[in-house]
Amino acid sequence: MPSFVSVQHSTVVNNRLIQRAKKGWIAAGAARYTVLLSVLLLPAAAILVWLAVSSQLWWWLLPLAGLLVALPLVHRLSTNERRAQHHAVERHRLAQLALALLREPLENGDLPSQLSQHVPPLFPGGWVEVRLLPDTVLFAQGEGWIPLPNEQWVTLLEDVETAVTLPALPEAIELGFGPQALLLPMRSQTGANIGGIYLLRPGAADIWAWEAAGQSLAELITAELQRTQQVEEALAAQAKAYEEAIYEQAYQAEVNTMLLEYQKVTQEIATARQVQTTFLPPTVPNLSGWQIAVTLEPAREMSGDFYDFIELPNGRIGLVIADVADKGMGSALYMALSRTLIRTFATDFDTAPAQVLRAANQRVLADTSSDLFVTVFYAILEPETGRLTYCNAGHNPPFLYSGNGGGMRLLDRTALPIGILDETAWEQSSIHMQPGDLLVMYTDGVTEAEDESAHFFGEARLQAVATANLGRPVDIIESKVVTAVLDFVGDAPQFDDITLMLLARDA
Q1: Assigned domain for 159 exists
Q2: Are residues 267 and 294 in the same domain?
Q3: Model confidence over 389-409: pLDDT tens digits?
Q4: Is the peptide bond before 134 cis (omega within 30 degrees of 0)?
Q5: Sequence-separated (6 or more) residues with CB below 8 Å from residue 39
Q6: Helices marked H in 144-296 — which ranges?
């Protein structure tokens, strides 16, 4: 199966080198800034103490106190800066691993080699062991590494559902690693433990600082294992069927060959569908004073539509609804890449949706040679104030209904879709949702749903259903819209994915 990503090697390598140099310069600058201020402030504090004591002007102690307060503040700022840089590097490296796994064809993926390339930078100087139960070591690093006995792995992972700490091996402590180890389970879709990740940090560093990166790594590995397992099972079934078919007559052999190809494609689609489903949020956020409802009805096994909810600092939340301009396997892979990139950059630009989509657009154009594109409506909601800042990248304009009888307005497009042009204008707008207001977000699968006479459902019918149900809970409005669309279509086939998201502020 051909890869959907074309990598411009030299450009990417150069960009990564530049980014790493910048991050190192910033971290070094923060450290130099802390040392400089300490050198300046400490003598000044000593002078002020001498003046206060010698002159008995105790009011001189006030600026001294200010200086003493400034020192820990400067240290804290420097620490926060280093921590932010570290988290940004972790997110970047995890995104690189996810992209590398997605680029690998299903039939010949090499998980251990990908782990060997991408895991060491995540846990520098650490002791790392990635194990599949009962006895398969996928990856290991660490000076003097000694594999844990197979039976000890089984015992450690028994009844473990989340990350836990345990005493480090004495051999590891003697080599300079910390006294605690972090164990993160890898769980199958049924909830059973299929393996885990064992982490040790050098020295006395807090092992929990690696918990977020370790958890994300465990989830990526689990998804990749599920994908490859399903492919291997499909290939084994195909091989068995082929062995049986070669003993049949020529005509029957030809028929069986065609059937095997169909089964292969069907299995690959089913596998991809399961992987794609994991990208959608399992639940809807529960926001005090707000109601959210969402539904997605795919037209095929693979969907080009997607939605997302992204937790952001200070209680803000990102709302995403998007539509890839195609159907089938290609659009599903493009959807996975777009969703991953939007999530990656959302935390970097947590108040600027236009910058998030601009960065995602640049990365898509740099890493792919596909002629696909995706329309996206991305908004950042501040629940306390009702402020909604959005960027509409070529998507269907959502409807905003006023709760005080002020009518309806459209949130028009502010940018081109992602994946078309590198240099384009990316703009954002903002509104304030008042109590009783309702925002209706949708993909064109709703308005372009066709009946048996090839007539479209249209925006007018959508607006009529929403208007008739204003003031009711959003889950009821959602049900009314979906029912109206399905009743309109009747027995006609569904040609496009139907995705609907509703946001309402309580009156």
Answers
A1: no
A2: no
A3: 999 999 999 999 998 888 999
A4: yes
A5: none
A6: 150-157, 170-174, 211-245, 250-277
